[in-house]
Structures are given as structure tokens and as C-alpha cells.
Amino acid sequence: MAIEYKDLLGPNGEENNMGGTEQIVYLIRKSDVKTYPAPAAAPANKYVMNTPYVLNTGKKAMQLYTTEDMSELDLGSNGEADGKSFKPMLKLFYPGIDEDAIQFINDVKNDKVNMLVPLNNGKIIQLGSGKHFMTVSPEMKTGTVSGRGLGTFIEISGFVPNILFYSAAVPLTPAP
Amino acid sequence: MAKLSKVGLAPPPPRPYSIIGLTPAATMPIDFEGQRYDLANLTESELSYLLQFPQQVPYLQTDNVGDVPV
Question: Could you tell me if the ipTM is greater than 0.95?
């Protein structure tokens, strides 16, 4: 498909450009995926995924909460001239610590995942695909008495060739 | 255990549509376009809206799909 840039004419006053992310993001384990999202058959934009993740029996997308104003997504440029790609970095904070949280922290540290990150303008960024995966680096901290408080700083990163929008349903119900 | 089995086997209430590709349950959440939908308990307007996106939300089937404006 030949490259053809569309005019980028800036805001018309109706946009919502609130920063950060929504307070629930979604994690999908590589080993849970049967088929990955794909763009439409003849897409107007090949970077918009139009079909949902199809997961293995009993699997669903995991919901991961983040404290407000403690989440951010950077889709930084990666590589040198003629070899550019992107290095996503999603930062979250999960407050407190309990049995479920510590199980997640321990089990996810060497897992491979995709992430669906809802922005505050209604769009969802897809991090990863069937060929590129994200890794999760959780860092639990007590902090100080007068500081942020007990919880886990979570960094999710990887390398991807393109930035993707996800415009399909997020399966929060287990697959049959 | 017997109690759980009874709950798990309870038949879903009759609906004007069927759900495929997800495990039947009393609540069947998905997120789509920034909204949470319970596929097991859709309102008429929610059903009508979601049926407009058969690729993005491929879980719903109804005999009246052709009647839904696209």
C-alpha cells in the first residue's frame, strides 16, 4: 500500500485531549491467545485493529487498575535512521498489596503479554501483537509514611514496528 | 458443592438474540468503544447498536440482523 499522508489540520475545539490513561487497562497473556486482532479486509487505515482477540478456553482479558494520575503511556521512537520503530513504555501504580496482587507480581515478571490501554479520548492503544510482546516489570514499594503509600509501580515495555489502535470488543467474559 | 452446581447449570433467561464465542453466564461483560456492555442482559437499544459492528463485536446473532440499520 502506497504511503499517502492525510492533512493534519489540528483541533476544531471538540476534541478531548486529557492526558494519562483511563484507570482500568487490560492485559492479555500470550499463552491465552488463539488468534490476534487484525485490520479490516480493505482497511482505510491498516493500523486500526478491527477484530477482537480470540482467547483459549476459559481465558479472558485481565483488568488492571491504576491509581488516578499515576498512569502514563510513552510511545517513544526507537532505533537509528532508516531503522526506526517504537518502544512503548506504560507506567501504572497499583495501590496496596494483598494475596491477588502479590500473585500477579510474582507470576507476571517473566510472562509475555499484550496490553490494551484506553486513553481518555475513547481510543484504545494496542501494545504488542502476535509477533511482538510486552514484558512487565513490577516494583513493590512501601514508600515512606508521608509518601505515596504502599503499592506497586508497574512498567510495561517492549519494541513494536508500529503504533496500533484497537477498535474491537475487549473480551472480559471467558472464551468457551 | 451441590449448591454451586445448581447455580452453574441454571439456564440463561430467554433473549431475542444468541451469544457465540463466549462462555454463557448470568453476566457476560465486554468493553467496546469506551462503554461496558453485559451481553447477557442487553437492552434493545444496546443490541441494536452492537449489531452494527459484526466484525468488532462478533458475539451476537439474531434472526433480525437484516433489519438493523448499518
Answer: no
